[in-house]
Design a protein that fits this description.
Elements lengths: L1 H18 L3 H10 L2 H4 L1 H11 L9 H22 L8 H5 L14 H16 L4 H17 L5 H50 L1
Length: 201
């Protein structure tokens, strides 16, 4: 009974989203669905923060870009394993606005890459958490509104992106720390060698 109710609510949400049409909202979602918004814009926000003089971290844009790339590749592989067709109204509602992707519907690549990049930026710069996560949510919602994805596509894609974003930041930080320790050891060895040369002179 519970599963049936959940399915009814889910189907109602899909129908309501696809039948809802308001021109200003359509324009907003078409822009949000553009390739340069789904993660490059989010990574650019991280790059701006990286460039600040007092910034203690310079890895935000790198982490966001890597996270988005990993998410895109992972989603592409997952799509090969699924055979879920796009929503039936996709061609009718989207064709005049954007091109319909040739790939399968599950999971949403836009949602995955947007949330991967947004999670990376949010972890490195908590003060940007609200705007970047809102932007990622807008990207995900645009895919359902435009009819190219089901709700489950963007939900799973978003959760997948969050996991990848968090793991990417952790991995990048570990890599940066390892490089800094190696550089520090080299500097210490160089200093020791210089002292030995001076003492021998």
């Amino acid at each position: 009974v519970v599963a049936q109710r959940v399915l009814e609510v889910y189907n109602f949400a899909i129908e309501a989203t696809q039948t809802l049409r308001w021109e200003p909202l359509t324009v907003l979602f078409v822009v949000a669905s553009a390739w340069w918004v789904k993660w490059p814009l989010i990574a650019a926000l991280g790059a701006v923060s990286d460039s600040r003089p007092r910034c203690g971290s310079r890895v935000c844009a790198l982490s966001a870009s890597i996270a988005a790339g990993v998410a895109a590749l992972s989603v592409a592989l997952l799509k090969e394993l699924t055979d879920r067709a796009r929503p039936p109204l996709a061609e009718e509602s989207v064709q005049p606005l954007i091109s319909i992707p040739d790939s399968t519907s599950f999971p949403s690549g836009h949602a995955a890459t947007a949330f991967a990049a947004a999670t990376a930026v949010a972890i490195v710069y908590p003060r940007l958490r609200v705007p970047v996560l809102l932007l990622a949510t807008l990207v995900a919602l645009s895919r359902v509104y435009l009819g190219v994805h089901y709700w489950s596509d963007v939900i799973v894609g978003g959760l997948f992106g969050v996991a990848i974003g968090g793991l990417t930041v952790h991995s990048v930080r570990l890599g940066v720390r390892a490089l800094r320790r190696r550089a520090q050891r080299r500097e210490e060895r160089g200093t020791s060698s210089a002292r030995l040369r001076r003492s021998s002179e």
